[in-house]
Every structure is written in C-alpha cells, then in structure tokens.
Amino acid sequence: MPRDQAGAPTGLVRAPTDQAHADGYDLRHHGDAEVRGDGDGLTDLAVNVRAGTPPAWLRRHIADSLSGLAAYPDGRAARAAVAARHGLPSARVLLTAGAAEAFVLLARALAVRAPVVVHPQFTEPEAALRDAGHEVRRVVLHSGDGFPLDPALVPEDADLVVVGNPTNPTSVLHPARAVERLARPGRVLVVDEAFMDAVPGERESLAGRTDIPGLVVLRSLTKTWGLAGLRIGYVLAAPETVRALERAQPLWAVSTPALAAAEACVAPAALAEAEHAAHTIAADRAHLLAGLAALSPRVRAATPAEGPFVLIEADDAAALRSRLRERGFAVRRGDTFPGLGPDWLRLAVRDRATTDRFLGALREAVENVSRAGSATGTG
Question: In this structure, which CATH number among 3.30.70.270, 3.40.50.2000, 3.40.640.10, 2.130.10.10 belongs to the domain 67-267?
C-alpha cells in the first residue's frame, strides 16, 4: 500500500470486500459511540453537533408540528423552501432522513460500476456502497501536507466519486475549483457538504450550481441545528438523479416534524443565525488551535482547519484518549477513518470556557502519558 512521508497510506487503494471492517477500519464506528452508555457526565467533544442546540424557537416550531401527526407527511412546502434557499427548482431537491440516508440511496439507485471514495472522510459513503455490493476504490490524501485534494489521483474510469467539503474528520475546506475538476461527463460527483453551513459565507460551496455535469450535493441540517435525533438532510442534483433516488426511497421517509424543521432552518432568519454561529465557531476554533500549538510537538493539529472540529495527531493517542476520559472529556478516535491511524483524534470545537478546561486536561494527560512512556522505556 503506498504511504506518505508520515507513514499514512496515500494515493489509490483498493478497499477490501469485508462489509463492516476494511484494512482494520471500522466503517460503522461514529462519534456518538464515545458517549453512549457510560458517557454521563462527560463533556462531549466527540460528536460534531453544535452545542446548545436546537434553539428554543426551533424546538417550539417542531413541537407545533405535532398536531399534524395524524396525517401522512407532505414534503412539498419544505422541498420548495430548500429549493428557494439555493435558487433551484423543486425538481432538483430531495429531502432525506439525514445525509446518511442519501448515501444509501445513491449506492442502491445509481447504476455505477467503478465508485471511488476520497479519504480520509466520513465513512458512511463507503459503507453504503459496499453494503450495496459495490467494489470500492479509495483515493487517500496526503497527511504530511495537510490533506489537499489532488484531482489527478482519481482514476479516469471512476464513474462515481465521493468527496467531503469541508471534510470530516480533517476539517479541510477544498477549493471549489479543485472539486470541480473531479467532474466528467458520465461521472456522478457526490460532494458531502454536511458541514458547509459552519463555514462563514459558505465559501467553496457548490450547492446551487447547475453547470457541473453529474454534480450531487448533500446537505445536513443536523449539525448546526442540533437535530441528529430528528434526521433531516437533503440532496441537490439534476432532476433525473433526484427521480432515481426518489424511486429507491421508502414512502414518507421524512417525518412531519423533520419537514417542519427543514422549512424553518432555511428561512432567512435561520440562515442569518447560522452565519453568525459560523463566525463564532471560527473564532472558537482559532482559540483551540492556539492552545494546541502550545503543546507542540507532542500534539500536532492538522491545519488549515475550516470545520467545526479539529484533527490532531499525538503519540500514543489511545492512551491520551483514555486519560482525557478520566478527566471528563470524550474525544473521537481517528483510527476508524481510512487514511488515518492510531495516533489521530478528532476534537469538536466548543466555546472558549469549555476549550480552556479541555486544554488544561489535555496538558495534564499529555504529561501523564509521557511520564508513563518514559517509565516503560517507550517514550
């Protein structure tokens, strides 16, 4: 397997056929597993849902929709609202039960033969493709120079390419022009923009573009608005692609409360609130990165970071994660992401007070792990 200077796999890699695990990567592991069960009392830095959400006005709006639960869900108004938000006709929009459902629909509905997933990134796209019987190839980006997107790494015969922007877990925001270069006639280009509304100005977004052949943009409303338990997202694509996905989707897949949330979250006032939150996240992320820099070289943050999370590399990260848990903080292990390994952790961006508490705990944990390594001769 090709590897970069840091020892991480890079370039084109053919993924194994095992459906749950591949090359030791647990594709079904997600951040919520870090706080499930015995996570009471932990400060959650493992899940990328914005803290303090959903806001009170959104909770009230969702609650008001409950009086209509006797009727089957009618998604027309929400679909029209999402379309208007992106300047598109409704025929280019499909509402889904979160972005995860969209990945399943794409894997099952589209007649593709040579799918490629660009890693490191959210593992559900590859898992969904493999579950649908596809043989998946991976393009693994270089960790040594900040995981930049190199379109030349994607083989010309790929008829479906999946890339995240900004990418989970690396927090890299790829230039739109680089993502555009992945498009080809006869190829489906899936861009996962689940975290794009956490980027000020949503710069580098391709949502709303109709001039790029085969473009499919996925959006999630669960991260910024705290709706992971409600499941709501959407697909933006050519009408024929939307129709193909819709035929594969179960009837009434999106509930009435989720539809109400979708309509509310794309309203002008909500978009303004999301933009304000994006600027706050950017400032809070800069504060976190400054604190992490003070711990270099024992802790090394992947930069530039543009998402509501930061990827760090540290020696003996598994022990560090355990020490942090003892100190009340749950962080996301990175070794389940293809292209990463046991020395990586992902941290959600939180407010400055929480970050300062975390940095203190991280400093203590790093020193503890270093002393333990020195005592055993492994440090």
Answer: 3.40.640.10
Cα separation of 299 and 311, whole Å? 10
Element (H, E) at 119: strand 115-119
- Nearest to 48, CA basis, from 331, 326, 375, 325: 331
DSSP state of 77: H
Q: How many helices (H) and strands (E) does the chain have?
A: 11, 16
Q: Where does the pLDDT of residue 35 fall: very low under 50, low under 70, confident under 90, or very high at 90 and above?
A: confident
> Rounded to two decimals, what is the model's pTM?
0.92
- Tokens 């950017």 correspond to 282
What CATH homologous superfamily does 11-51+271-369 map to?
Aspartate Aminotransferase, domain 1 (3.90.1150.10)
Six-digit token string for 151: 């379109």
| Cβ neighbourhood burial of 269 (10 Å; 0-12, 13-18, 19+) | exposed
Strands (E), the chain: 11-14, 21-22, 25-26, 43-44, 93-96, 115-119, 137-140, 160-164, 188-192, 215-220, 233-237, 299-301, 309-314, 329-330, 332-333, 344-348
- Parallel, antiparallel, or unpaired: how do β-strands 188-192 and 160-164 relate? parallel
* Structure tokens belonging to residue 83: 């379309």
Residue whose structure tokens are 């689940």: 194
Q: How far apart are CA 319 and CA 119, in angstroms?
A: 25
Note the pLDDT tens digit of each residue in 109-148. 999 999 999 999 999 999 999 999 999 999 999 888 899 9
Amino acid code (one letter) for 114: A
